[in-house]
Amino acid sequence: MESPIEMPKRPSLIPGVDLSKMPWWGILLIFAGLSISLLILTDQNYNETFIFLKDGVVTTLRITFFAYIAATILGLFTGLARVSKNPFLFNISTLYVETVRGIPLVVLLLYIAFALVPLFIEGVLSLGIDVSIRDVPMELRAIIALAVGYGAYEGEVFRAGIQSIGKGQMEAARALGLSYFQAMRYVILPQAIRRVLPPLGNDFIALLKDSSLATVLAVNELTQLGRLRRASTFRVLETFNIMAFLYLAMTLFLSAVVRWLEEKMRIVE
């Protein structure tokens, strides 16, 4: 039987380097990042825009960090309730998940900030506690709203992770004398958390980007400062180039951290 005819390979422009396997997407991003960095250092308009926007990065990261911690805690309890055999816990958690996931996040921000928070303050005032609506800053309202919104999604992530663990492990743990909560804490959850780490990391990155919605509450995060800079200087290109550069730098860095954590906590089958 004749062997198949091998087509001659095209010679590489660089000897010993297969250009088809080069990470061109990464090279292009690095080139774009270096270009923007050079403009920040050499162009006055870019430099002034960067200085104006850098405080927004701190606010954006602060909102993302605290909202994500609250959303993860809320999502964990929601996920546990979603797999519970208690009908009250199951129905309350399901109502929360289905309701919040059906409302656009920007509407949820407005609803919590301008409807639920004032309603809560009125309830506190009726108890005789002296508090003002101004005592709840818009940044805190944004954190609460983002935590509530993402808590529903994290709840489904944890539910899927818990249900991915074989039922035999819970039965074995109960047979060894562990209570339901002990088995969940020491046997099921440690394995489930390792499995749901990738979607949890992706949600953290998504929350970083969705923190830009806090601009509807006039919170001085990155997007809001970008809008103010554009309105005051009419430097549209410089402003949005710097904004995109900063968001991309943060998301790429967080993506690298998430991939590193995945490798460290990888489950060997």
Task: Please give a structural write-up.
- It is a single chain.
- The protein is mainly α and 269 residues long.
- It has a domain at 58-215: MetI-like (MetI-like fold).
- It is 75% helix and 0% strand.
- The chain has helices spanning 24-42, 44-82, 87-101, 105-126, 138-163, 167-175, 180-210, 222-233, 236-264.
- Helix 2 packs antiparallel against helix 3, helix 2 (44-82) packs antiparallel against helix 7 (180-210) and helix 4 packs across helix 5 (138-163).
- The longest helix has 39 residues, at 44-82.
Strand-helix topology:
Blueprint: H1 24-42, H2 44-82, H3 87-101, H4 105-126, H5 138-163, H6 167-175, H7 180-210, H8 222-233, H9 236-264
Helix pairs in contact: 1-2, 2-3, 2-5, 2-7, 2-8, 2-9, 3-5, 4-5, 5-7, 6-7, 7-9, 8-9
Characteristics:
MetI-like fold, 269 residues
The fraction of residues assigned to DSSP E strands is under 5%
Shape: flat
CATH architecture of the domain at 58-215: Orthogonal Bundle
CATH class categorisation of the domain at 58-215: Mainly Alpha
Mean pLDDT: 86
Q: Which stretches are poorly predicted, pLDDT < 50 over at least 5 residues?
A: none
CATH structural fold name of the domain at 58-215: MetI-like fold
* Coarse structural class: mainly alpha
Give me the number of helical elements.
Answer: 9
**Helix amount:** over 70%
Mind summarizing the main beta sheet? none
Distance between the termini: 41 Å
CA gyration radius, whole angstroms: 25 Å
User: Which superfamily, in CATH terms, is the homologous superfamily of the domain at 58-215?
Assistant: MetI-like
The H/E string reads HHHHHHHHH
Strand segment count: 0
